[in-house]
Amino acid sequence: MKKPWLVSLILGFATLACGLFSPPEVVRIPVTQVIPTVPPTTAISALTPDQVKNARYQLVSRDAQPMVQLMNGAYQSTTDVSSPNFMSISLAPQMAFGDLNGDGAGDAAVLLAENYGGTGVFVSLIAMLNQNGQPVQAASDLIDDRPIINSLSIQNGQIFLDATVHGPNDPGCCAAQSTQSIYQLVAGKLVFTSFISKTPDGGERVITVDSPTNGSTVSLPLTITGHVTIAPFENNLLYVVFDANNNEITKGSLLVKADQPGGPGTFTLPLDLSGKNFSGGLRIQIEDASPGDGSILSLGSVTANVK
User: Which structural domain, as residue segments, surrounds residue 294?
Assistant: First the structure.
């Protein structure tokens, strides 16, 4: 017969062994999930009227083309109009804002007027690009002496200008030729993509390129076709072909087929650049130039990619 104290001792040792050799309790520590954050992209603010009114500009109408700093849209070198160093520079009230180079930042188009003490006020179109939120002059084109500006806008990356300028027979005081121009910034230059002018009786000179379609991919040799609303002097048009960097590739003349002088007509231009081993983007510009002074009366253009 087992002794009671011995049984108690055995049970005590058994209980102690279970406590010593049983698996330890698992302690779960909560883990906080860390999600990496991407720093927000800082959007570049669009240019404002105040910025372009207080920017630096390179002048256009003089060969030296000095730089001037405008303050509130104006600069004047001296109050002495008779001084050979006199210059009065100002921005026209018309301004346009929008993206000109496809980078998503809001750029600007402005009109810069230059006067050097005489009656002439030479107005130029200026493209101002947005560089890190600041306006920087990118390109310019002289419009006319004392033009009348009707409207200025930016649409689809192009600048639209409606202005009354001097025609071939207009006196210096009085611009009378109504024009509509479309500009595009190409390889650091402002180039025409379209130019329309009106005749004294109100007819519009328009050149339209029908084929190839704008932006299409083409093969050489290429045939360009189009039409005009008013046949040019002696039915003669000029053409110039540029590459994507605005370098001239070739130029020449072509004839318009019209039933009567000054009536509507059509044109066909065979273009073979295979001898130049050319490929890539090109721009074909068709012009009606004044026989008097060579100024452009109308212009049409098309861009294409040669494969």
Answer: 199-307
